[in-house]
Write a structure and sequence with these properties.
436 residues, alpha/beta, Arc Repressor Mutant, subunit A, Rossmann fold, Helicase, Ruva Protein, domain 3, 3 domains, five-stranded parallel beta sheet, 17 helices, 17 strands
Length: 436
């Protein structure tokens, strides 16, 4: 899908958002001085010494590449470390010095590693991170009806449901998808990402806050795109697609705060920080290891004010933007999960129910086309009668795919070509549904 998302033209009286400052797709200029990095000189020197100690011997250019900062800044850092007797020159390579740590430098590096073992790219400052997240906010996206239709074109959804979804996405606020199992809640939630999968944002490798390092970039979450071929770009930031994060029953209250690793002695960003500027899906809400009321109590302020507070060692709290589309998907009754006060904070609640016979036919037709199986109306029509009259089942969106898969699996076992007929569908039903 080739979808370009633009800010809508609007008058000052009707614009839902202020005009953003640099957007996520802009190039972030490379720092020219130590001050431009936003990080204290001592933090940079300590990081350089740890990387050098762990690597053995490096050229200054190699050190700059590992720190993700310009050579001229590393050259200045090297001058300070050399003056203090912490490193020395062993030779030249391609016109730049090769350096190693001295015995005093090794001792100092070991002390630093006992405090924190972080030895990756230079982090960005908390202030720079906050400004960038706000600048590339998911709430700056313009959600238009045609874009919504394209995003959900692979699903069979009534027009009123598409309107509800489009309205919810345009709000940029939390969404509650609820209804019986098998009505497509998880699939619909996951498909929301199609609306901005071509949009690009910047994600830092790490953030520094109060002397602590928080690792943000996660290759398992952040899909990188082609990095800009620009010489003067700040490579501490990675160009990525907007993230899509889904958590289910494994979610705990601890996952919503900074994750401190006692071995490495630095922090990993919590799940909502990794999902910043993207989509966060809480699937099977109500079945997590954390109680629903406990989770929503934790997110009262974030859902209301779009800011979150994370706790560092020692109890100090830092403030970050809570900027993402949060989707709660559940087959439980929302009113039984949380009280009215929390339901008010999740202003968009969309119920997904049984589908019509016509929609069942259309989904079944698409599934058959996908599985290269001839679609036949008559046996599917008889199947619908069996489901509704004999089995007393509501028609759910998951049934066509699940039953056609049963037909194909049985044919594979029998070593025959799959065929959609009364016999194969009857066997599929007897295998799929629990006998009453």
């Amino acid at each position: 899908m080739d979808l370009e998302v633009r800010l809508p033209a609007a008058s000052p009286d009707t614009a839902p958002f202020p005009s953003p400052v640099p957007r996520g797709r802009d190039i972030i200029p490379s720092p020219r001085t130590i001050e431009d990095t936003g990080i204290r000189r001592k933090v940079l020197e300590d990081l350089a010494l740890k990387i050098l100690h762990l690597s053995g011997e490096l050229s200054i250019r190699d050190l700059a590449e590992r720190m993700h900062i310009p050579l001229r800044i590393v050259d200045e850092i090297f001058g300070r470390l050399r003056k203090e007797g912490l490193c020395l020159v062993t030779g030249m390579a391609a016109g730049v010095h090769r350096i190693v740590t001295t015995s005093e430098g090794k001792e100092r590096a070991s002390e630093l590693l006992s405090i924190t073992q972080y030895a990756g790219p230079v982090p960005v400052s908390l202030a720079d991170y906050v400004a960038r997240v706000k600048a590339q906010s998911v709430r700056h996206l313009a959600i238009e009806p045609e874009a919504v239709r394209r995003a959900f074109a692979h699903l069979v959804l009534p027009e009123n449901t598409l309107t509800q979804l489009g309205t919810a996405l345009a709000s940029g606020r939390a969404i509650f998808l609820y209804g019986p199992p098998g009505t497509g809640k998880t699939t619909i939630a996951d498909s929301m990402w199609r609306l901005f999968e071509t949009d690009k944002i910047w994600v830092p490798y790490a953030v520094e806050a109060d002397g602590q390092i928080i690792e943000v970039f996660d290759p398992g979450v952040h899909r990188t795109v082609v990095q800009p071929d620009v010489h003067d770009h700040d490579v501490r930031w990675v160009r990525c697609q907007r993230p899509r994060v889904m958590v289910g029953g494994e979610l705990t209250i601890e996952m919503l705060d900074l994750q401190y690793n006692p071995g490495s002695k630095f922090y990993t960003a919590p799940v909502q920080m990794k999902a910043s500027n993207g989509l966060l899906i809480i699937d099977d809400f109500g079945r997590q290891r954390v109680r629903p009321d406990e989770l929503l109590n934790r997110w009262v302020v974030p859902l209301d004010r779009s800011i979150d507070f994370l706790t560092l060692a020692g109890g100090r709290k830092i403030e970050i933007p809570f900027d993402m589309l949060v989707v709660f998907a559940t087959n439980l009754d929302p009113s039984q999960l949380v009280d009215d006060a929390f339901l008010r904070r999740i202003q968009t609640k969309i119920r997904l129910d049984a589908i019509t016979r016509a929609d069942f036919h259309e989904i079944c037709r698409r599934v058959c086309h996908e599985m290269k199986l001839e679609y036949r109306v008559e046996p599917v029509e008889r199947l619908l009668d069996v489901l509704e009259k004999d089995l007393g089942q509501e028609l759910r969106a998951c049934y066509p795919r699940d039953l056609v898969q049963q037909v194909c699996w049985t044919a594979r076992y029998r070593q025959v070509a799959p065929r959609l007929d009364d016999e194969s569908l009857d066997l599929a039903c007897r295998t799929y549904f629990v006998a009453r």
